[in-house]
Every structure is written in C-alpha cells, then in structure tokens.
Design goal:
The protein has a domain of about 100 residues. With about 160 residues, the chain is mainly α. Helix content is about 70%, strand content about 0%.
C-alpha cells in the first residue's frame, strides 16, 4: 500500500486517509527514531538495512495491491517496482542526492526479482503468505548484496 500504487490503480481515497492507523504508526516510528538517535549512536548499517526493508515492503505490498485487482503479472511487477522505488526516489530528490535508483548497483532490479519470485512461487502452489515472505527476503538480500557485496547488473554499452 502506498500513495503511488493507490494513484496508479485509481484507488480512492489513498490508503492513509482510508486507514489512519498508518499515520499513527509512521508518527510513532518517527518519534522512536528521533529519541533513539538522541540518546544512542546510530548503528553502523541501520540506514542501509532500513532502505532495503523499505524497498522490499513497499514493492511487495504494491504488487499485492495490483494483484488483488487481478491485473496481468507484468503489470503487477511494474506497479510493485514503481511503488517500491518511489519512496527512495522521493527521499533522494528531497535531500538533493543522486537517486539510488540511478546510481546503485541493485535497486529496482531487486524489486523486480522479488515480485517475480512471489508470483512464480504462488503459481507453483506455495501459499500466498509464504511466497510474499520469500519475495520480501529476496528483495532485501539482493539490495544488501548490492550495497555490501558490490553486486551490480552488467553495464549496457551502446556503441555509435
């Protein structure tokens, strides 16, 4: 669930207006994070892990929203990937950084792989919840591999 998947799929009102508990959860998490960094040092890899988890959660839930609309698998993958990448893209633009989506080794492709695995595992008979968690773990693993393992996709070279 995200604003981008709600808008792409013409779901109104957007999720956080329809279910205000998400706003309270975000506010509580923000307050807890602010309090934590005020009293304790930020763990070394906390932001990278949060980025990987955020990408995975938003991509997979965006895919589920599209899937519930009974859209074709390719559209489910595209909506989920856009939903997952939109938050990080917005964060990077607002903080005047080059978007990770454009500069990172594995970002959007991690979302694509996780969502595709989720759909394939369901098609193979795995229960939806297990397939969701498997896709989620794949996105996180690929994203962290891109950050810490230096994993990246081959560069496409266009010759003139």
């Amino acid at each position: 669930m995200s604003i981008s998947s709600d808008l792409l799929l013409d779901r109104h009102p957007v999720f956080w207006i329809r279910e205000v508990r998400y706003v309270y959860t975000i506010l509580a998490a923000t307050a807890a994070a602010i309090a934590w960094v005020h009293f304790f040092p930020l763990p070394e890899h906390a932001l990278a892990l949060a980025d990987a988890l955020g990408l995975a959660l938003f991509a997979m839930t965006g895919a589920q929203v599209a899937e519930e609309r009974r859209l074709p698998a390719l559209v489910v993958i595209l909506v989920g990937t856009m939903t997952g990448a939109a938050g990080g893209l917005l964060r990077d633009v607002l903080t005047a950084r080059i978007p990770l989506l454009l500069s990172s080794g594995i970002y959007g492709s991690a979302a694509i792989a996780g969502i595709a695995a989720y759909l394939l595992l369901q098609a193979a008979g795995m229960p939806r919840r297990w397939a969701f968690h498997a896709g989620l773990l794949l996105v996180v693993a690929l994203r962290l591999g891109g950050i810490y393992g230096g994993w990246h996709l081959p560069m496409l070279r266009l010759s003139a």
